[in-house]
Amino acid sequence: MAVLDFEKKLKEIEEQIEIAKIKGDIHAVETLTKELEKEASKTFKNLTPYQKLLLARHPDRPHAIDIIERIMDEKYELHGDREFRDDESIICYIGTIDDEKCVVIGEEKGRNTKEKIKRNFGMPHPEGYRKALRVAKLAEKFDLPILFLIDTPGAFPGIGAEERGQSEAIARNLFELSKIKVPTISIVIGEGGSGGALAIGVADKLAMLKYSVFSVISPEGCAAILWGDNSKVETATKALKISAEELKEFGLIDDIIEEPFMGAHKNYDETAKNIKEYFLKNVKQLKELDKEVLLQKRFQKYLNYGSFKES
Length: 311
Description:
The protein is α/β, with parallel strands linked by helices. Helix content is 49%, strand content 16%.
């Protein structure tokens, strides 16, 4: 398991706990467990914006497929955009979460080298966004709520993607998802990178896992543009205001979903459980709304973005 710099001391205590367990030293286990809780509380209470970014990108953080496997009881994967090809950086499933029939659409980065190449490191091409929209329209046809799982560095910036209409595909999704007549819930589970995230981020409810990030540009890109200096990444991260707490304060997201002790990468099952509970709770509330009221509330929500006061 990968260990970030600020996790090293916590990892050392965890290793000491494991050794104490092997020795059968119950007293040492209890003492070290309390020490771990105290140290973790201090560490995670004082995380910098850049450290939160590192957590969002943690190599062991659960991906969309990890969540889907844990929350969907029955599922069938849907492929292709019916125009060009099947973009595997976007995954789409129809099935059930408990007794709720639904569609889940997520961005998938891949875990090992072979998977990352197959998934294009979670950077969708235009056909990926067209695939997501096709499946969303299918959900609308059968009156099924939609759960979007956002986790991408951004839309793929390659020449081929631009030639096939990357910006148009993203814009089309923003337009179409804003008026789709079923409840929609979007959750940032890792990175929410710019238009690549927004393309499946227009929803009745937009939530973030506590240590996920959502930004208009990557901190590296921001540092390169503003300062021409990659060492300014931490400064850029702070200036961009990309953490869940900051975005909630600005009214740009609706809710923050709690993560397990020391982060989502420590407990996939608990992370999936929290996401599942959030989805089911909010779908129940949204389904009680008249379709026109649902659309009007969604429209008004996004109309309020960017509001400001003059003093």
